[in-house]
Amino acid sequence: MNDNDDISKKLGTNTKLSRAGYDPFDYHGFINPPTVRASTVLFPNAKAMESHDQKYTYGTRGTPTTDALCEALNELEGAAGTLLVPSGLAAVTLAFLALLSPGDHALIVDSVYGNVRHFCDTMLARFGIEVEYYDPGIGAAIETLFKPNTKLVHLEAPGSNTFEMQDVPAITAAAHRISAVVTMDNAWATPLFFRPLDFGVDVSIQAATKYPTGNSDILMGTVSANAQYWPRLRHMNGALGICGAPDDAYQALRGLRTMGVRLERHQASALEIAEWLETRGDVARVLYPALASFPGHAVWKRDFKGASGVFSFVLNVARRDEYKARAQAFLDGLSLFGLGYSWGGFASLALHVDLADRRILTAPTEGPVLRLHIGLEDVGDLKADLERAFAAATAI
C-alpha cells in the first residue's frame, strides 16, 4: 500500500466521490475521463489477437470510460469487481442467472421490486428453479425455510413501496452456514448510506438509473461482488454480452461526483415532509425507516448511515370502494410532483402503489398507499403542492 492509498482511506465521502475511479493525469490532466466508444479493438499482431494479450479486446468487455465508473464503484462498494448493465432489473437478473442452476431453490424477499418478481415467476420457473418468497422481517429465522437445494437468498432493504427493513447481518450469517449466496438490491440507500458487502452480502446491486446518475435520463444497473463470486458474474456477463454504454457510463460517473450532496438534500427534505405528513389527520401512517414511529426504525438506525428521498404514506380513507378514486384525485391535484415510476432524480415524483402481487405481506388497510420521491425543489413549495392534493382528494 502506498501513501496515496492511506490518504484515500481517510478522505470524507464527498472528497472520495469527487476523485474516485479516474486520475486526470492519466489523460493529460483533463478533469473528466474521455468517452471512449468501441466495438472493434485492434491487436498489434496475430499472436496478441490469439491470446487476447492486451487490456481491451472488444467493446462488450469494457473501455477506459466504463472502467473508470467500475473502479469508482469498486471503491465505494468495497468490491472485488463491478459490472455495468443496461438497467437495474438487468443487474438483478444477471446475478440470478450467474448464481442459480436448474433444480436450485431461491429465497426472495416478498417486498421485492415487482419486475424482479415477474422475472422469478416466469423466467426462473422456466429454467426449473424453485422460488419461494419470505417475510422481510424474518431475520435469523430464515433458516427455517432452508432446503437442501437452497442456493440463493435475495434481499431488498428497505423493501419496494412499503419500505420494510431487513436484519441483513442475521440473514447473511444464516445463509452462509449452508453456503448459499446472498444478493441485495441496494438502490434506495446507495453505498453511501449502506455498504452491503460490509454486512456479509456477496453481491450488491444498484439501479444506477436513480441516485448515481441523478438526472432521470440514463438507464443503468451495477453489479458489485466480493472476491468469491466476482469470477462467476464476470463469466456470465461475457456469455450474455450485456454491457453498459460508454456514453451512459460517462454521464453516470459525472453524476456520481455530486451524489453525496444531492443525497444530503434528498434526505433532509424527505424527513421534513415525512414528519409533517405524520401530523395530518388525512394520513393514516408514513412508511419511512428514518421515522422513529416506523417498525423497522431500530434496524435502520443500527445499520444505515442515512435515508434517501423515497417513502410512502397511507391516505386515510374510510371506505375501501373509494381508495382508487381518492388516490387518483390526490395525484391529479399535484402540479410540482410529476407522476412517474422511477426516482432518484432532481424532480419530485408520486404514484399510487399496487401491492396486489404480495404473497406473504398484506397491504395497509387504512387506505391507498402513495409513494413519493422528494426531489431537490424547495420544501415549502412541495408542502403547498401536497396541501392542494389533499384538498382535491377530500373534495370528491
UniProtKB/TrEMBL annotation:
Question: Which of the seven top EC classes does this enzyme belong to?
Answer: lyase
Q: What is this protein called?
A: Cystathionine beta-lyase
User: Which reaction is the catalytic activity of this chain?
Assistant: L,L-cystathionine + H2O = L-homocysteine + pyruvate + NH4(+)
Q: Which cofactor does it need?
A: pyridoxal 5'-phosphate
Q: Which NCBIfam families match?
A: cysta_beta_ly_B (TIGR01324), PRK05967.1 (NF004626)
Please give a single GO biological process term from the UniProt record: L-cysteine catabolic process to pyruvate
Q: Name one GO molecular function term.
A: cysteine-S-conjugate beta-lyase activity
Q: Is-annotated flag, keyword Lyase?
A: yes
Give the record's keywords alphabetically: Lyase, Pyridoxal phosphate
Question: Does Lyase show up as a keyword for this record?
Answer: yes
